Amino acid sequence: MFAALALATLAASFGLLAWRASARATWIQSALEDADDALSDKNSFLALIEEISAEGGLNEAWTQSELIETVSSWSNHFTDRHPWVYRHATVRLLGLRANDSLGVPLAVLASITGPVDFAKLVIAKGLESELIAEHLTVADGKAAYRYSSAITVE
Fold this sequence. Notes:
Elements: H1 2-39, H2 42-56, E1 61-62, H3 64-81, H4 83-96, H5 106-113, H6 115-128, E2 132-139, E3 142-149
Antiparallel strand pairs: 1-3, 2-3
């Protein structure tokens, strides 16, 4: 009897862990899709780059590593200043309002997806829309890509 109860408790615990992992994967996928949609709009993309640059002081030309560091700082600063926005957004992304338009701030999406994946998405969308340019540089025998605005202001 005791063994059956222990086994049932163990099975329920594993079921709960599997559900949480599945919900988290769905949550991250929804966050990435929402970020992808938001970054497809050129004005939103430019506003995002300006906001991230103002927060972390990106140079005119930056590497992926520099963008990751800046995105991390920017998203952490936003969620620290607006914890209620972060909590509300995470509830929405967990699917409790699955049919609702997400409308989650990009800083929250960056926090949820992580700065590495968010930075990669920013670079990919910027290159796709030709809003940023990619330059191969070599310093001290090491090659690295640097990114900069492809928009020139006269």
